[in-house]
Design goal:
Layout (H helix, E strand, L loop, with lengths): L5 H51 L3 H8 L1 H7 L12 H20 L3 H20 L4 E2 H7 L6 H16 L3 E5 L2 E4 L3
Helix pairs in contact: 1-4, 1-7, 4-5, 6-7
């Protein structure tokens, strides 16, 4: 019979406990890394949405025209200048795309603006095919091949929320979306 001293047994028990803690902490670390990736993706989405909305705010319009008053007066008569402002959907689409393109070119990554607009178009195409059915964001992400991680799914959710705000998609329940009636 092998006799084990109490000290050796205590060391063995402590080592086993530490190994269990290590495994648990590694799993927790991976979960936190995934959560951080999702939060980072959501942060980027919110920042893009905020910059697009700030471009549409009334204060930004006069400041842009104040920097070039001669160009505006010389090219366009005064009554025609306010005409683009009432079309909020067109202004948001063109101003948002311009801002994203400028942001991407200043960062040196022109693919960023293309993939952002591409996701919106892919989602709208999906809803055009889905018709009058309720779908979850996860189902949309899966259909678009963007269900690889929580960050990609959250990007789809953020885009869906933005499309709901633009009345291009309807929210019919908690987590359920449907194509907007035209």
């Amino acid at each position: 019979m092998v006799s084990v001293t109490p000290k050796a047994r205590n060391i063995e028990i402590t080592a086993e406990g530490l190994q269990e803690d290590l495994a648990r902490l590694e799993i927790q670390k991976q979960a936190l890394e995934r959560e951080l990736a999702a939060v980072t993706a959501h942060l980027g989405s919110v920042q893009r949405a905020l910059s697009a909305l700030q471009a549409l705010m009334p204060e930004s319009v006069p400041s842009a025209s104040a920097t070039r008053p001669e160009d505006v007066v010389a090219e366009v008569p005064a009554p025609v200048a306010p005409a683009p402002m009432p079309s909020a959907v067109q202004a948001e689409g063109s101003a948002g795309a311009g801002d994203r393109a400028e942001d991407a070119s200043s960062a040196g990554d022109s693919d960023g603006s293309k993939s952002y607009g591409k996701l919106t178009e892919q989602i709208l195409a999906y809803f055009a095919e889905a018709g009058n059915t309720d779908v979850r964001a996860r189902d949309v992400a899966s259909a678009l091949g963007r269900d690889t991680d929580s960050g990609s799914i959250n990007a789809v959710r953020s885009t869906l929320d933005r499309l709901v705000g633009q009345s291009r998609v309807r929210r019919v329940g908690r987590g359920l979306y449907r194509a907007a009636k035209r």
